[in-house]
Each structure stands twice: as C-alpha cells, then as structure tokens.
Amino acid sequence: MDLPRYHRLTAPYYRLEGQRCAACDAVQFPPRTSCGACRGADLKPYRFSGRGTVYSFAEVSQPPRGFVGPYVVALVELEEGVRVTAQLTDISAEEVEIGLPVEMVTRRLQEKGPHGYLVYGYKFRPCLERSAARRAS
Amino acid sequence: MKPNRDVGIAGYGAYVPRLRVRTADISATWRGRGGAAPAVAEKSVPGADEDVVTMAIEAARTALDRAAVDPETIGAVWVGTESKPYAVKPSATLVAEALGITPHTVAADMEFACKAGSEAMQAAVAFVGSGMVEAALAIGMDTAQSKPGDALEYTAGCGGAAYLFAPADLSLAVVEASVSYVTDTPDFFRRETAHYPEHGSRFTGEPSYFRHTLAASRRLLAEVGCAPADFAHAVFHQPVPKFVEKAGAELGFTREQIRTGLVAPRMGNAYAGSSLLGLAAVLDVARPGERIFFCSYGSGAGSDAFCFRVTGRIEESRHGATVLDYLDRRRLVDGYGQYLRLRGKIRTA
To answer: Torsion over CA of B1, B258, B312 and B115, rounded to 10 degrees?
Structure first.
C-alpha cells in the first residue's frame, strides 16, 4: 500500500470507522461515496463496536509480497450486521471455527522493509477470555 | 509535589502479549548444566504483528472504556517507551489517532529507560492539575530488547499499562502526592546505532535501583506523613522479583503489601511498562479508601513515586480485561529459535 493511500485510510484502518446513512440509518464498511442501501449521499462517520463472529475463513500459506504467513483470513460478521474481510491473529488455522466470537484489535499489517514505513490496521482475534469466568466454570 | 487542583486516575488499562518463552530454553542454549536458575520461569514475547504502538492502543482503549471521559476532552497523549517502532516518528500520534483523540492534543514519546511511563504520569498530573487540559493519557509500554545470551535476556519482557488522568471528582484513585529523584548514573544505555542495550552488571543494583528507589520512596513517605503500614499495597519497578522484595523490606513494607503488584515472576520485566502493570494489577482488586504506594525506577537514573488513594468509583470503573486475564492468556513459543525469530534477532541479510 502506498503512503498517501495508507494515510487516507487511517480512520477505517485504525478505528474500524465506517458510515451511517442519515436518510435510511443503514451502516456500511468501508466508507463509500453513497449509501449501499438507499444511495443517499448524507453519510456520517460511524465507529463499529469491533465485536463479531467468523462467517467463513481460509488459511493463506503462500502470502503475497509484504506479508508474513501462514495466516488466517476471515469474513467477519460484525454485530451491526456488516461483513468485513480481515486477518485473524493470536490464533492458528486449526483453532478457527465458523461462528467463533472475535473482537477487533489494531496490529501491524505490513512493514515496508527495514527502512520503510509500517502499516497498521484492524485484525480480529478470539474474544479475550476472562479469568473470573474461567475460574467459575 | 502536588498540583493546584486535585487530580486522579479516571481510567486504566493493561496489556501483556499472549506468547511466553521459558527461560529454561534460553539457559539450555547459553549456559552449562548446574548453573543458577533464572530469576523468572518465563517471560512475555510479542507476536509477529505486535509492537509498542499496537500494545499501547489496546491498553489505552481499555482505559478510555473505563473512564467517564469524552475522548475529545483528552488534551495530552504521552507514550513512555525504550522500544518505539520508529527511531524518528512519534508513537503517540498513532496511538492518539487510533483512539480518536486527534487533532487538538499534545502528543509525544517520553524517553527515560524504565521510568519513561511514570515520567508521562508526572506530566499528565501537571497538565490536568494546572487546568491546561481536562484529561491526559500517560502510557508506559515496552517490548524490551536484550542481547542474545546476555543476563538481560532471561528477564526482558513485554507489556505495559495506560492511565487516563482527570480531575479528582472523576477519578477511581486520587493522587495525594508525588516525588521525583534523578541523578546522572550510567548503569544501562544503548548508543544510537546499537541493536541491544549495555549494562553495568552489579552496578545496576546498589548505586542504581536501590539508591533511587529508596530515596524517592522515603521522600514521598515523609511528604505525605505516612508509614508503610498505612498502605494496602506497594508497587515497585520489577527488574527481578528479589530486587522488589529487598527494596520493599528495607522500606518496611511486608510481603503481603507487595504481593499483588508483583507481576514479574509471570512475565519478566516489562521495562517502562513494569511498575505501571503492577499498579494496574493492584487497581484490579483495590477497595475504596485504600492507599497505594507506587515507585518506579529507570536507568540513567531516577525514580518517580506516587501516593494514591482509591475512591468509591473504583468498583464501576474496572470492567474489561484485568492484568490477570492477560497473564492467564498464555501460549509458549516453540523454543528459543522461534523466540529469536519473533524478536527479530535472526539476521537474514
């Protein structure tokens, strides 16, 4: 990803910020020029909660240049009903299941070589287990 | 020291990566059989996509979730670290952007070895205490560096915590007083082009850690007019557990007072994040009215000591992940080789 494009995308990349349509109340991600539901143009920034479940997934064992593999890429269904494609982290492919509850974290996506810039963005990980819940069960 | 208006912690959050390396795996590579056991059994290791920025963002998100403070009122973001991802480029702007605090805020990275996080806390207290800003975020976070085979490699861990400071009426713990104590002591340093820090071996003990920790602590006790017995918990910087036990005992704190805030045995020394993580572990269980004693130490050298009093807001302000949640979430790396790769210690070109 080139530098100006990365800089333009910091709101969706860092904060999972999409849009809510002022006309029909639909939410969408990533941000677009018009509403995908009603084609309305009055769109306000909307920050997604970051919580969702794995809708589908695949393991990438031959990663494209600039990425380090193997890693799992998933279609995550956010609790607001929108689906997002993203890497999963803190988990191996064998541990992933469809329906797994996940939460958004901001992680390193790419490193442009030892002298280049770092690209940060959203990934999803299994929801952090609470020790108290673990002790009770 | 005390600001003009009362200030406290309105929200806090911790972070420790999931991975651990067993120090026995490091010993097996570098030491002969029959040597002394390492000071901690295992230490935390960042994942391939983690660094001080990603770790600071997660800790700070928890801190903001717990605080009754609008992110737009936060007027300062400081990240204290000695392992920033960029040698030149602030980590704090990235953290502020991810949290939605930009653009009307002060932001910078603090540098003072393991004291960088508490330095940020002192600055945050002053900024809020003077009325310049309504809230200030102070973070101490590190992915500590260590030369392969060096004594530091057995303890240099990763993690830290974020503290959102705000006026006392919004706080879960109020700052009663703080002190700083610094001298020029070259016990640990890294030159600009060096990959790993150097240290003065035994020189890091008496003239460094103990001198500064004890002096700052005694000064604070005198300023607030309290005895060690007046505190429910005491937290210190944690290079190795026995340093904390010795400093605590010399000051008159019991093992019971230092137990909750001592996280190093389970994750090693998180450098600028070490004492801040200990404080977070204490806040996870503290009760209203309790006093907490806190003293950091950073090479170079200096200590920041704080006296906190927990308020009635604590119970409603600690939802979300605790320090224990992060310590219990652990996965061992596949031996010393994988650890070296994750820490970027293997040169491929």
So the answer is: 40
* Cβ-based neighbour number of residue B73 at 10 Å: 13
pLDDT (mean) for B93-102: 97
| Chain A residues with CB-CB distance to B18 below 8 A | 90
Note the pLDDT tens digit of each residue in A26-79: 999 999 999 999 999 999 999 999 999 999 999 999 998 888 889 999 999 999
What's the CATH number for B7-172+317-342?
Answer: 3.40.47.10
Residues B6-20 have pLDDT tens digits of 999 999 999 999 999
B141 touches chain A (CB under 8 A): no
Buried b / exposed e over A15-32, threshold 16 CB at 10 Å, is: bbbbbbbeeeebbbbeee
The total of other beta-carbon atoms located within 10 Å of residue B245's CB is 15
| Average pLDDT rounded to a whole number, residues B47-65 | 97
How many CB atoms lie under 10 A from the CB of residue B112?
22
Asked if the domains at B7-172+317-342 and B175-310 fall in one CATH topology, the answer is yes
Residues B274, B267 contacting (CB under 8 angstroms): no
Contact A14 B98 (CB under 8 A): yes
Kindly list the distances between the CA atom of residue A91 and the CA atoms of A7, A79, B156, B158, in Å, as whole numbers in the listed order. Answer: 28, 21, 24, 19
Do residues B43 and B71 make contact, with C-beta atoms less than 8 angstroms apart?
no
C-alpha dihedral, B164 to B75 to B176 to B5, nearest 10°: -140
Q: Which residues of B touch A123 (CB under 8 A)?
A: 49
Q: Token digits for B117? A: 């996080």
Interface TM-score (ipTM) > 0.85: yes
C-alpha B203/C-alpha B244 separation (Å) is 17
Give the start-to-end residue ranges of the domains of chain B.
Answer: 7-172+317-342, 175-310
CA distances to B32, B45, B275 from B26, rounded to whole Å, are 11, 13, 25
Residue B100 φ/ψ region, left for φ over 0, alpha for ψ in the -120 to 50 degree band, beta for the rest: left
- Spatial CA neighbour of B250 closest among B209, B307, B190: B209
A79–chain B Cβ distance below 8 A for any pair: no
Which residues in chain B have their CB less than 8 angstroms from residue A68's CB? 48
Domain spans of chain A?
A: 3-128
Q: Nearest CA of chain A to the CA of B98: how many Å? A: 5
Q: What is the pLDDT of residue B25?
A: 95
Q: Which two tokens stand for residue B69?
A: 């403070």
How many CB atoms within 10 Å of residue B126? 18
Annotation marks residue B82 as catalytic:
yes
What class is the B175-310 domain? alpha beta
DSSP B210: I
